[in-house]
Design goal:
alpha+beta, Alpha-Beta Plaits, 3 domains, five-stranded antiparallel sheet, 20 helices, extended
């Protein structure tokens, strides 16, 4: 139960065997490859990589297009299908046909775009002509004739009086109002060609908007013709869509080949991290010590002509972090993962942190009914969804926390609040909040002392025994003495203990300073750290606050349901209130319990001894989007 020891692997092999070796490491998923090639030495396999990226782009295009016409979403509980090398090879044999189908998809989409663009253009013409539909003037008569010009257009109603006055001043200029629609006047204009400059100036002055269309018939005739063309376009679009849907038969092939080339892309990208000569290559990587023999055997099976060496990290190395814990602690790794992983040489805090988180979450939720609901939901979710990675850790964590909540709920008498009136096995926090407050603060003292003890252990482990005595030992003595002052029979002893601790802090906390006075003053100022410890302890009062808030909300829901009285309707409404109210309370309270339990670990506990800063172990492994590799 600790940080897994990492071995630095160095592998030298023949270039002819490189593909097999890299492929073996890729499928094993046990080695984090280190980049050892210089930036200027990375042109290897660029042509092949470009070709692979091109194939990826083509298959992604086909998949994206087919998704628009067919529902390929997996159900919530549906697992990705399984695939293996044999299936990959079968699809690769028929790849030429699949690429031809993708070319067909390109052509179909281009045709679809052309039809949609034409349809949009025709609909735009119809939109412009529709207000003129009842005007029976053929549009071929509009424009400049031999002697006169005729136009159809609109002006705003507010401009009409001034327009009329100015139009009367022009000879051989006439207009006729056709209709009015809201604030727009539709009119016909005619004038001699010799007045074109004056007429255009007048029209421009009053914002005349002329109708322009390439049609020759009346607006109604043109609209009917355009609608017939749109009907034909819709038929063409339906045909294109049917042809695209028909190529959905290649969906499995497209997704499989996408995953295949994605794997190849990852592999070729790793080639650029290797050192190479004309005939050999050199690879370095991190391997968990527990997998050393497996990796060595797998590489040996792939190529007997290679040299492989494992050694401990050098002083300047910064190996990645991999944690290995038992079934109880592993889910709680999620809490530390979200904070920061242990750095090189640092201990794994999870085995110490897990029991505290387990207890704190259970106390805050503190209800048998909610605990059972939470655990059952997570248990069902794991079997239906089958999560992996962090998702599985979260579900396992909440399942365990549900068990803790049920235990503390029985001790506190919480069974969906006060629904069943079952007495507490220990005490009820609602009836005895002071006892709950003292209990919460006592748990805080225990965790803070544990954090100081962990820091002392780390210092001793690293050979800093003096630091452990001066920086943690004296604080533990001082704080213990202050706590003993609360016990009347131990007042004298407590005073002596507290004074010993305080004196030790004053004499040692300024040891890094120069001069006796500065050492003494720094030591004296260090006692102000007591306020920080007091603040940390008071922070654990949130255990009481969240415990009471969840219980009160549960009681309110029960009271509301009882107030509805008897009868069928009252029973149904009461049942709805109970179900919705308690599910809501579980969700809100559960979220609060998770957040505040995490906060106590990050600030009050980890702040005493844990630094973090490690990088997670990221092995070179297969990562498929649409399938699970077997």
């Amino acid at each position: 139960m600790a940080v897994v020891n990492m071995k630095k692997m160095t592998l030298v092999g023949l270039k002819d065997d490189m593909d097999r070796i890299i492929d073996t490491l890729h499928k094993s998923g046990l080695v984090q490859i280190i980049e050892v090639a210089e930036e200027e030495e990375k042109p290897f396999a660029q042509n092949s990589l470009s070709e692979i990226e091109g194939r990826l782009s083509e298959y992604n295009y086909a998949i994206t297009l087919l998704k628009n016409f067919n529902d390929h979403k997996r159900g919530m509980f549906e697992q990705k299908p399984v695939i293996n090398d044999e299936v990959f090879n079968e699809y690769l044999k028929g790849e030429a046909g699949y690429l031809d189908d993708i070319k067909t998809l390109h052509n179909l989409e281009n045709k679809q775009n052309e039809l949609n663009n034409e349809k949009a253009r025709l609909e735009g013409r119809i939109e412009v002509l529709t207000p003129w539909k009842d005007v029976g003037i053929p549009l071929r008569r509009l424009g400049r004739g031999k002697y006169a010009t005729i136009k159809l257009g609109t002006i705003e109603t507010k401009n009409l009086p001034d327009f009329q006055k100015c139009a009367e001043e022009l000879t051989y200029f006439s207009y006729g109002e056709l209709k009015r629609v809201r604030n727009t006047v539709f009119m016909a204009i005619s004038y001699l060609n010799s007045l074109e400059e004056s007429a255009n100036g007048l029209l421009m002055q009053f914002g005349f908007s002329a109708l322009t269309d390439e049609g020759s018939g009346t607006p109604e005739e043109i609209i009917n013709s355009l609608n017939k063309r749109i009907d034909a376009i819709n038929e063409g679009l339906a045909e294109v869509e049917a042809n695209i849907k028909e190529l959905d038969k290649d969906w499995e092939a497209f997704t499989a080949l996408y995953d295949y080339y994605y794997v190849q892309k990852e592999k070729f990208e790793k080639y650029n991290d290797l050192l190479m000569t004309r005939r050999t290559f050199c690879l370095q990587g991190w391997v968990p010590e527990t997998y050393r023999e497996h990796v060595e055997k797998s590489v040996g099976d792939a190529s007997p002509y290679c040299y492989i060496e494992f050694k401990d990290p050098d002083e300047e190395d910064n190996p990645p972090t991999l944690l290995k814990n038992n079934a109880f602690v592993t889910p709680f790794e999620l809490i530390t993962d979200l904070f920061s992983l242990p750095h090189k040489g640092e201990i794994d805090p999870n085995p110490i942190m897990a029991p505290f988180f387990f207890v704190f979450f259970g106390i805050m939720l503190g209800d048998v009914g909610y605990g059972i609901m939470l655990s059952v939901l997570m248990w069902l979710g794991e079997r239906l969804i089958k999560p992996s990675g962090q998702g599985k850790k979260l579900m396992d964590l909440l399942l365990l926390c549900g068990i803790s909540s049920a235990i503390w709920g029985a001790l506190f008498g919480g069974w969906f609040g006060d629904m069943f009136g079952i007495p507490a096995l220990w005490f009820n926090p609602l009836n005895d909040p002071m006892t709950m407050l003292v209990f919460s603060l006592a748990l805080g003292v225990i965790q803070i002392f544990t954090g100081l003890g962990m820091k002392a252990y780390i210092n001793i482990k690293n050979g800093h025994i003096i630091d452990a005595i001066f920086d943690q030992g004296f604080w533990l003595i001082f704080l213990t003495g202050l706590l003993m002052l609360a016990i009347p029979n131990f007042m004298k002893v407590a005073t002596v203990v507290a004074l010993i601790g305080a004196l030790g802090l004053v004499l040692t906390q300024g040891r890094s300073k120069r001069g006796v006075i500065m050492k003494f003053l720094s030591g004296l100022v260090s006692l102000y750290g007591l306020s920080g410890y007091l603040s940390d302890v008071l922070s654990y009062s949130r255990l009481l606050a969240l415990c009471l808030s969840g219980s009160v909300i549960a009681m309110v829901m029960n009271t509301l349901a009882r107030m509805l009285g008897g009868g069928v309707l009252g029973f149904i409404l009461g049942l709805i209130i109970l179900i919705v109210g308690h599910v809501f309370n579980l969700a809100i309270s559960g979220l609060g319990c998770y957040v505040h339990s995490s906060r106590l670990q990050y600030v009050e506990f980890y702040g005493k001894f844990y630094e973090g800063g490690g990088k997670p172990f990221s092995p070179f492994k297969l990562s498929l989007k649409y399938y699970n590799y077997q």
